[in-house]
Amino acid sequence: MEPHEPDLTDIPVTIVLAALADDVRLQIVRALAEGGEHACGSFDFGVSKATRSHHLKVLREAGLTRTRAAGTSRLVRLRRDELDRLYPGLLDAVLSTRTPA
Amino acid sequence: MEPHEPDLTDIPVTIVLAALADDVRLQIVRALAEGGEHACGSFDFGVSKATRSHHLKVLREAGLTRTRAAGTSRLVRLRRDELDRLYPGLLDAVLSTRTPA
DNA sequence: ACCCTTGTTCGACAATAATCGAACAACGCC
DNA sequence: GGCGTTGTTCGATTATTGTCGAACAAGGGT
Questions:
Q1: Residue B22 falls inside a structural domain
Q2: How many structural domains compose chain B?
């Protein structure tokens, strides 16, 4: 089954904001904002792989990321263009902040 | 005691995002974005006054609003200038969305 | 002084969300 | 086929958060 990646316009903005309102997920988004595709395993932020998988699911279901299978890995990327079109300035504003103290 | 209204730069962005990631609070922010000062009681979004007071506290402590006493009321206003300076585009992006379905 | 209005605070409770280990699934490789 | 790697899912636990009613506090009338 494909991981369901909803249409961004179907997602209430509160869901998007809630997805971004977590330190671990924000670190993931920061990493993804560097560009390109990242394997799930490349995000090591001090949580178990179960927790990491959970956070990636939250991001995906909030419409923030897309995922595709590649061998035994899964490659994740930020839906930057769509996000910037629907919420101009949001990602920039969030990413402009320094790493949380 | 004065309600403590922190310096915006002291507040992790995740706190700001979490404050905005709630339907009731977002409706309050939308109303405040119309400009000017609003009495707490003017926000009737189907929750009790205890809950409303709680949400206003969350917004205040996240640095999104300022409150001043005026007689028996309290007047709340959005810290728009500061927010736009620190997070350019964030409020606009969030407020541009239509009322949640 | 009394009361009404406006908010806040205090438990308490319910719902949501973060976290983990363990079990499971899919893939590639030897 | 069997094994290691990479992720996901399940069930349980804990922490956080939204919600309310009731009690309280501060003001402004009259």
A1: yes
A2: 1
